[in-house]
């Protein structure tokens, strides 16, 4: 369903769906219930769901004709192709992300983020704190403990502190997606880094969304090996992008790539798969450059530090949090 108005919205909310029938109503309601003094649109890309998700989205699109643009696929195209197609249909000055299995909890979310970006042109993005909801066990945690307000691309290159459902960025930062976007398994960190090259990142401590951590989600079901591989691949692609542009960013991405590679090598070695570890060392040495196979193997084989008292206490508190939060109600959109 294409837009029926020529008015350009201030914000495009990008939502991807695939077999989210049990979640999609909550996600869409949290977007359409936003209270803000400007026009916004919701662009939904459904990747050939087989559980009725598209039908539910269609009902919402008919209810909010002209404000919800529903894009459907006859055949499943995969996450990156669905994202690229949906992104191309976004018309807003700003883009916010809300995946179809997540949702927002604050009616003022869009207004607060737009207000900040409108009055702070030196910032490329605005993000905020979220509740992590571990659906399989019913526990919760708060994201970004101790996160500073002012951040930049160096902070992000060191560690991805951004939860996708909290993101709002300037469309002009990335008017069209780079050709290499389909080389990564997930788009979020790549998009955050591309945005961060255009300005600073503001973090709001106000909690305004729930990020649903499902056991069958792409990252969760990948397993340790695939998770390390996914982390390595996106950093390798970003290394190519920033090579010759930002040597400081390149160096941090390279370090993170090597850290993930050696961690995966340790995983292989612990399972007795030494030939896999050696092959990975050869692959990583070639990709990272200026490091040899022996150095990587030495790094991977080095004894790991014994957990400190602080780490033991943190682990105990995490265990307590998991059990206590199961008794608490999940935050809802209100």
Gist of the model:
This protein has 334 residues and is of the alpha/beta class. The protein has helices spanning 24-32, 53-63, 79-88, 109-119, 153-158, 188-196, 218-221, 223-242, 247-270, 274-288, 293-301, 309-325, and strands spanning 11-17, 40-46, 68-72, 94-97, 103-104, 123-134, 139-142, 150-151, 168-170, 200-213. α9 (247-270) packs antiparallel against α10 (274-288) and α10 (274-288) packs across α11 (293-301).
Any chance you could write out the topology, listing elements then pairs?
Blueprint (H helix, E strand, L loop, with lengths): L10 E7 L6 H9 L7 E7 L6 H11 L4 E5 L6 H10 L5 E4 L5 E2 L4 H11 L3 E12 L4 E4 L7 E2 L1 H6 L9 E3 L17 H9 L3 E14 L4 H4 L1 H20 L4 H24 L3 H15 L4 H9 L7 H17 L9
Parallel strand pairs: 1-2, 1-4, 2-3, 6-10
Antiparallel strand pairs: 4-9, 5-10, 6-7, 6-9, 8-10
Helix pairs in contact: 8-9, 9-10, 9-11, 10-11
As a percent range, the share of strand residues is 15-25%
Structure annotation, total helices: 12
Q: Report mean pLDDT, rounded to a whole number.
A: 94
Shape: globular
Order of helices and strands: EHEHEHEEHEEEHEHEHHHHHH
Radius of gyration using CA atoms only: 21 Å
Main sheet attributes: strand count, strand direction, barrel closure: 10 strands, mixed
Quaternary organization:
single chain
Percent helix range: 40-55%
Termini separation (Å)?
28 Å
Unreliable runs: none
Structural class: alpha/beta
Total DSSP E strands: 10
């Amino acid at each position: 369903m294409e837009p029926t108005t020529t008015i350009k919205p201030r914000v495009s909310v990008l939502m991807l769906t695939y077999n989210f029938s049990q979640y999609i109503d909550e996600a869409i309601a949290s977007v359409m219930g936003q209270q803000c003094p400007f026009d916004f649109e919701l662009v939904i890309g459904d990747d050939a769901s087989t559980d009725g998700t598209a039908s539910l989205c269609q009902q919402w699109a008919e209810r909010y004709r002209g404000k919800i643009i529903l894009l459907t696929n006859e055949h499943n195209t995969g996450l990156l192709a669905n994202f690229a197609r949906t992104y191309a249909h976004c018309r807003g000055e700003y883009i916010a992300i809300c995946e179809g299995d997540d949702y927002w909890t604050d009616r003022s979310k869009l207004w607060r983020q737009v207000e900040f970006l409108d009055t702070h042109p030196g910032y490329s993005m605005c993000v905020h704190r979220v509740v992590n909801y571990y659906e399989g066990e019913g526990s919760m945690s708060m994201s970004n403990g101790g996160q500073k307000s002012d951040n930049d691309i160096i902070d992000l290159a060191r560690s991805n502190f951004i939860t996708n459902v909290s993101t709002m960025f300037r469309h002009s930062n990335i008017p069209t997606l780079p050709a290499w976007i389909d080389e990564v398994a997930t788009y979020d960190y790549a998009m955050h880094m591309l945005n961060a090259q255009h300005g600073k990142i503001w973090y709001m401590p106000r909690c305004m969304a729930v990020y649903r951590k499902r056991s069958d989600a792409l990252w969760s079901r990948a397993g340790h090996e695939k998770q390390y591989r996914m982390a390595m691949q996106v950093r390798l692609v970003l290394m190519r992008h920033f090579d010759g542009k930002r040597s400081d960013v390149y160096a941090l991405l390279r370090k993170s790539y090597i850290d993930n590679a050696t961690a995966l090598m340790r995983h292989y070695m612990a399972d007795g798969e030494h030939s896999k570890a050696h092959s990975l060392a050869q692959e990583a040495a070639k990709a990272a450059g200026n490091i040899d196979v022996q150095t990587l193997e030495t790094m991977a084989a080095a004894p790991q530090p014994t957990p400190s008292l602080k780490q033991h206490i943190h682990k105990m508190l995490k265990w307590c949090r998991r059990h206590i939060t199961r008794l608490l109600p999940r935050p809802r959109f209100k």
